[in-house]
Design a protein that fits this description.
The chain has about 180 residues and is an alpha/beta fold. It is about 35% helix and about 25% strand. It has a 7-stranded mixed β-sheet, with helices on both faces. α3 crosses α4 (about 125-140). The two termini are about 25 Å apart.
Amino acid sequence: MTEEIIIAGFGGQGVLSMGKILAYSGIMQDQEVSWMPSYGPEMRGGTANVTVILSDERISSPVLNAFDTAIILNQQSMDKFEKTIKPGGTLLYDPNGITHHPTRKDIKIYRIQAAEASAAMGNTKTFNMIVLGAFLKIKPIVLMENVEKGLKKSLPVRHHKLIPMNMEAITKGAEIVEEVA
């Protein structure tokens, strides 16, 4: 099993954190992992993306031109990465701020109302964990126990008190994701 993923959105949406948690979760599951972030000088507000590869075999290169899955969180990322999904691949997106919805017919498309759900949970910082939960519902490539271990590994100890809230957000994302096409 090899899963090649691009996660893309605005800086501040937790794009890089989501990728890091997914990567650590893969490590906890004894998978080969690649985590390659890319962001502009603005960081918060500018666009950011991260490529994550999880595999049972050695990863030959972290540089990819096509992806099994794209997790898209803003319009600029939709414009840039929708076309890079392999035929038969998966696109997961939050429609908040998306004006041109995905149109491809050769991929599976899922929508997650993560911005809305995080606001309803009373903490918009859970946005990325809701998205991660949706992704893991669609593609359960890592076990939830390893996601929790990944959270512990990637969060500073002073923030470990937030792990239960993050796990709740992951569960919420798994509950509300919907297939579009």
